[in-house]
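User: Please predict the structure of the protein below. I'd like the answer in structure-token form so I can feed it into my own downstream comparison script.

Assistant: Understood. Taking the following sequence of 302 residues as input:
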Amino acid sequence: MHMTGFARVWGVLSGLAAAATFAAPSIAADSPTLARIKSSGAITIGHREASIPFSYLGPDQKPIGFSMDLCAAIVERVKTELNLPNLAVKYTPVNSSNRIPLIQSGTIDIECGGTANDRKRQEQVSFSVATFVSQPRWLVKADSGLKTAGDLKGKTIVVTQGSNAVGFAQGVNAKEQLGFNIVQAKDHAESFLMLNTGRAAAFMEDDILLAGLKAAAPKPDALIFLPEGYAKIYYGLMFTKGDAPFKALVDDVLSKQMASGQFEKTYAKWFTRAIPPKGENLAFPLTDELQQRIAHPSDAVD
């Protein structure tokens, strides 16, 4: 949904919110997601286990991260809108392969991870306004001698099953005639393991996810990025397709955080400071592309 549509839905929600006490049943009735949450007395958040710093398991094995903090604010708004101060919050781990089916089945109400918004996925689910802008790149071992993507010709490379990188790797392979042997691992942790054990020469994924894995590695300097980068990718929180009232609620929370400066504070907490469990600093400041989306919130994709 572009801003024109968003503004229309937001207006509807604002009107309902003006009489929150009486409107809660109506909001829930108009939104399958909110109706399910109200009926069960619980909201179920889908989270990743190793998508640093968006959503991953902390020292106590509970999910933490940038997207989890954003979703915490959304949970508070849902409590207010539904007049459910004791709303329970449940957490369900998801991966690249099952996150969309779990949204479609209603098993999870919102995915708070690091998921790219693209037109193909929009046919199955909905996304919030962009919360991050990334770019797919190659991560290789520093002592491999690999300097450019062209050096990967004829080698085995790994991508994570269900990830956006699968298509990018296949596209690069076809366009540049590099003859990759493309292997798809079940999750980012397995992809990273394949790179570090030498079973793959390179791991393609969004730059920030690779930066997170690199920072958490025993020897971060043993891994380097190749210079090539590919298309801009916009991340968003993911939820049921066609649920306009729930999307309006989510976008309203995020847009107000962006306008107030709270979003940038949360970003700095996870991208430019030491983060658990090992105190790594990703040193990944706001990009120009994300600053533009903060100034003008939108879920549009290129």
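That's the full token string. The first helix runs from residue 3 to 17.
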